[in-house]
Amino acid sequence: MDLAKLNLMAAAPEIVLACLLGVVLLADLFICDKRRWITYALTQISLLAVLGVQYYVARLPEMSEIAFGGMFVNDGIAQLAKMLMYVTVMFLLAYSRHYVGNRQMYKGEYYTLTLFALLGMCVMVSAQHFLVLYIGLELLSLSLYALIALRRDDGLAGEAALKYFVLGSLASGMLLYGISLVYGGTGGQLELPLVLSNLYAGTANPILVQLGLVFIVVGIAFKFGAVPFHMWVPDVYQGAPTAVTAFVASAPKIAATVFAFRILVTGLGTSFADWSMMLQIIAVASLLVGNLAAIMQSNIKRMLAFSTISHMGFVLLAFVGNALVSDGQTASSFVGLSAAMYYVVTYTLMSLVAFGVLLALSNQGHECENISDLAGLNRKHPWYAFLMLLAMFSMAGIPPLMGFFAKFYVIIALLEQQHIALAVFAVIMSLIGAFYYLRVVKTMYFDEAADTEQTPDFSVAARWLLSINALALLALGLMPSLVLEWCVNLFRMATGG
After folding, report:
1. pTM to 2 decimals?
2. 168-180 tens-digit pLDDT
3. Bridge partners of 370?
4. Pick from 431, 29, 319, 229: nearest CA to 38
5. In the 3-class helix/strand/coil scheme, how is 37-76 assigned residue by residue?
């Protein structure tokens, strides 16, 4: 393969991230625990540098998007997802700095594993080849297993990591088996556009492809944490340290959405009727189980876990609300795909705020993880109560916050494709879900103050970032078309529409 086909500039952000990750890893060997802030600073500087490189590459005129002989693509969708993930990780590291310091997690491994996971996510969103997709997914998964078990003295964290590892290995095996079946059914094709061309030409073995599609959808559903492949979600959210839970609940969801788009639309678009039916069943089950189970939770991390399951149900419904025509290309409206991206961006912002408040209130010797721990928060710390209120109202879908428009666009996409029953069901589930979000608000504003100490352990910079994060839910909710039109244009360019 010649250098022209490699086109390393398209993959420059990932190359820079890998190099800076190595620098952080080596530098940390010579840093003692008392000077661990240096590792934190190096990590944040690395993320800023990669964000700058990504912005520079995105603005290069007439730059070829394809790299490594067609296995890697740096289109608008990948660029948007990467920038969002870089910013998300930067915010999370700022939120969690004091938390990890108080719990003997202020180690170089916390930062390097986070960067390894981020690198895996970047590979996932830019991969245009089944094996590259799988490599990115495994790099992310292995990093998350280690992060969850980072507190070796915590039995719950070890148990959560083991459950995630066992179930994740099973799901990865199913995904790989599905890829092998599609590989055999399409005459040895692994590059996604070539798989789609083979399917459109009618030369593929339909039985092998359909069977492989079943296993691939199982793998995708597991990464989303959708029912019935959701067993790991509540245990991991509750057992992992809150800083790690916040990471698991945010950036990987962006990567999973683009990952699903690459496989289902770019590679298997002509099988829309098959995977759409499977996603409908999974999405309905996720909305039902997620919302009903969340009502019964007293642990707020576990409640947010079941909430995540229901939110991922909405994302999958958005894929169902996308229209594909016979040649496998996306219809001109792009409503479904853009609604899915808009929803996952909104969900990431909401999760960052919710877990950011929990991190702020989890000082040394006290873990804020029960709903009752938030009792009377408005009287003690009204600003943090207000920020959590914005997150809960947005998750409940109350206008004019972003969460309302995220649900609204998904429902519009379903109605455009005549999925009226699914749209009505989604509305009903949203009304049920509002109960447990409003219960958190009621606890903060109307219950008696908790006896536990709630002294926020946050730096001034983290407080400002959290405030900006929360107010963005309101500001972008007042201008919803801004983000949606961006998503529509990016998907139009990515699919050649």
Report:
1. 0.92
2. 999 999 999 999 9
3. 299
4. 29
5. HHHHHHHHHHHHHHHHHHHHHHCCCCCCCEEHHHCEECCH
